Amino acid sequence: MFLLAPDEPGIGGLRDELTRRSLLTAAGLAGMLTACGSAPEAAAPARSTRSVTHPLGTAEVPVAPQRVLSLDSNGALQVSLELGAPLVASEILDGAAPVPPYLPAPPPGFESLGFNQLDLERVAALRPDLVIGNVQRIEEAYAELSRIAPTVTYRNAGAGQDWRESVRTIGDVLGALPRVEGQLAEYAARVEAVATRYADLIAGSTVALLRFTASELRIVRGEIFGASILAHAGIRRPPSTDTPGPSATYVSLTEETVGVTADADVLLYFVGGGASTRDAAATAQRYLSGGLWQQLPAVRAGRVVELDPVAWWDGYSVSAALACLDELDAALAG
C-alpha cells in the first residue's frame, strides 16, 4: 500500500474527478427536489356515484345512469322520456295510449312492464343501474329492489306533493335538473300567458273539474295534476268543490247528488284515466243522460267541455302540463 504525495502526478486529476462527481450528484438531487416541488398534485378521480336521500332512505346512484328502470307509469316514465334518459323499461298506462302521445317515443329496446304488475325477477333480468318510482308503488318492495339496483323514490300528488317538485326530484336523480328547471320556466310562462289572455273571463267565472271513474263521478281537487294546472292559471273553484269527502283530492257524487255542482259556471270533465279507463265510459253515459245533470246551469248554458284524461289525469310532466294548457286555452276561447 502506498500514498501519493500532494505534489506527485495524478493527485490533481483525482481531485478534479471527485469534485465533478460531487457537483453532478448535488445537481441531480437539486433537480429531483425541484421536480418534486413543482409537480402538480394528482387530480382526484371523478366519483361515479353520489348519495341521494329520498323518502325511503339513501341510495348511491350513478352520476350518469346508463340503464334506468321506471316503476311509475306517470312521473318517472314521462320525465325520463322528456329528458331522453337511457330508459330500458317502465310500467305503462292502462289504456289505449300506454305511452302518452305528447311525449317522445321510448328509446330502442325499451320494454313495457305493464300496468301495476311488479315482477322482481324480470326487473333483475333487465340489469338496471337505477330504479326510480313513487313511494306508494315501491314501498313494499323497496328492500328487494335495493338489492337489485340503487332505488330512489319520490312523493307524488296522491301524497299531497306538488307535481313540479316531483318532476324536479326525478330530473335531479337523472342528472338533468338544469334542463328540468328550464322546462318548468317554459310552463310558468305559458300559464302566465293564458291567465293574462283570459283575465276578465277567469275573474268572473268558477270552474269545476270532474272525472268519471269506473263506478262514479268525482270532483277533482287538491294537488291532483289537472286541478293544480287550473289553480296555477288562477281558475277559481266553486264552493261545491270544498265539500267534505273521503279524500283531499276528490269528492264523490252520485246521480242524485250531482246537483251540488250547480254553483259552477263552467264544467270541465274527462272520462277514465288510470285504472278506470275501460269501464268509465258506461259511467259517464249514465250520468250525462240523467235528468239532474241536464238541469245543471252550466249544461243548459252549453258551458261544458270534455278533456283528454291522458293529459289531465295520467299526466305528470311538463309536456302533459302544456297539453292541458292547450285544451284550457281552447276551452276558454270557445
Automatic annotation (TrEMBL):
It comes from the Bacteria. It is found in: Cell envelope. Transmembrane segments: none annotated. SUPFAM superfamilies: Helical backbone' metal receptor. It comes from Pseudonocardia cypriaca. Keywords: Signal, Transport. Belongs to the bacterial solute-binding protein 8 family. GO terms for cellular component: outer membrane-bounded periplasmic space. Residues 68-334 form the Fe/B12 periplasmic-binding domain. This is Iron complex transport system substrate-binding protein. Its main location: other. GO terms for biological process: iron coordination entity transport.
